[in-house]
Amino acid sequence: MSDTSRDIVLRRIRESLRQPSPLSARPDFSAPLHPRPAATDDLAVAFAQSFVRVGGVFFFCETAEHFYDQLFAYKQEKGLENLYVWEPELKKLLHDGNIGFQSDETNFLEHADASLTTCEALVARTGSVLVAAATGSGRRLSIYPDQHLVLARTSQIVTDIGDGLKLLQEKYGADKLPSMVSLTTGPSRTADIEKTLVLGAHGPRSIVLFLLDDAPAATT
């Protein structure tokens, strides 16, 4: 049986995360400074590499059921008893998968172990997650909890930051952008105090991305 396109993408992502990208022996000064990936599959691989490089935890999900399995296992591994989810789409998705979560703000300030949100776009160049306050998660779920979990689709991956901002303008209108737009690149970190790197000082200590493949199935 021949591999499907999903099998190929998943294998390429695994291989790219296992091996560092080779360095060119000599620079090609005639080539573009930032060559653009030629296909969506290449964007997924490029994003995975960039996201892990800046300290993110990455999971590739072939189906919704695969997402449920990986999210459940991650919750068990990290002992996450309080996963806050406020977006209606995500609530329905987790309910269908029998995944426990906190659907309101009960004890949020005291017990915000983790949050699960969607995002506006994923930036392959920098490994960044573009979030906005226009969703049901508002401003707080991507900033306050110790761990920020994100569910995104492969169709949301763009090459550059400018491409992500263009998507926002097309979705909301240039004069009606959300009140808060943020690019999250890796976990929150600072070295302001005695040059010692501290994670989680100004935001989540870790960012975890579940990338759900929504590419059309290959035809034979």
TrEMBL record:
Organism (species): Hymenobacter perfusus
LUD domain residues: 109-211
Superkingdom, natural source: Bacteria
InterPro entries assigned: FTHF_cligase-like_sf, LUD_dom, NagB/RpiA_transferase-like
SUPFAM superfamilies: NagB/RpiA/CoA transferase-like
Protein name as it appears in the record: LUD domain-containing protein
Residues spanning the membrane: none
Pfam family, one: LUD_dom
